[in-house]
């Protein structure tokens, strides 16, 4: 039996709890230490899970730790991921992978040069919902995808996150914060994007924090667009509109992603989650629902009953390191998704159509066999 990879987390905030809770599902992973720029945050999270609290420097120098997960805020992602790779360790970042395409390219080059693996959230498209949709598309159930729509709308993050300032600064906003789920989902289903164009605006100059915590009742400034309407053209020729806004109190778009093909239509479940029901039609027939709770990583296991298998992308990356293959949630997929998002924001400023400078392969489908291997003690 081979021993699990010893993993350190950098960034002991809100999402670190989910990574620590879910890691035991994947026997090739073992989180052994947590670090944070704020030592008290690292200690609190480390004590909660009985792991070591280290400084960032100590964690990066620890020879026992071969993999580090970057759970810092978006503006620190590049610097921390670069430091992890420079320490000769596999790096997996929360999204967005970096804030500029140049920085993303540097990370991919650094990982290649050092012979270590680089991965990035989201890994939600590896869940039952994303993989079932992928299988149905690959089987030709809706034919060739001609077009589609994506809607990601709410009234922002200030009602639930105790420290929501970063969401409203460059690196945040609905495109860079939630866009990664949507773009990765469509790269999985349709493949890479070739061109984008967009319009964008800020609905409000500041946001009132209503979440419990020290900032409750205070306002945070808005330094990035919060309403964006974009069109994406995929290399296949498919055109998909993306309407992303944190300025919307209420809307009627119940299906976050709809795809329209030559032989039918598909309603893809929320790419923010791992499970959900996929629906597709044969031409204009009734929708045929496909429950994905029996598919790998589709079963409800989290607060509110939804499927949450964060750490699946990390487990797949480490499995890839062992067999020498490309991880499914690879730096290259994340770089392309970043290029799409940054180009959308650039197009909204320049009012031009942007030709992307990157491309990627569709990640390999995650089979039942892969799921068994990733969840079985070795
Ligand atoms: N909160 C969620 O539900 C959620 C879900 C999915 C993805 N994410 C992503 O995870 C990342 C973290 O989100 P969060 O909600 O946990 O944020 P958070 O603000 O709660 O925590 C971030 C932590 O990173 C630390 N940090 C910041 N800069 C650092 C640096 N240079 N070195 C070391 N530590 C540093 C902070 O002190 C803080 O403890 C973000 O990229 C976010 O988009 C969050």
Automatic annotation (TrEMBL):
Domain of life according to the entry: Bacteria
Transmembrane regions: none
Oxidoreductase listed as a keyword: yes
Tagged with keyword Oxidoreductase: yes
Keywords associated with the record: Oxidoreductase
Residue ranges annotated for the GFO/IDH/MocA-like oxidoreductase domain, each copy included: 131-266
Gfo/Idh/MocA-like oxidoreductase N-terminal domain sequence ranges: 6-118
Any single Pfam family the record assigns to this protein: GFO_IDH_MocA_C3
InterPro entries listed in its UniProt record: Gfo/Idh/MocA-like_OxRdtase_N (IPR000683), Gfo/Idh/MocA_oxidrdct_glycsds (IPR050463), GFO_IDH_MocA-like_dom (IPR055170), NAD(P)-bd_dom_sf (IPR036291)
Name under which the protein is recorded: Dehydrogenase
Organism this protein belongs to: Kaistia dalseonensis
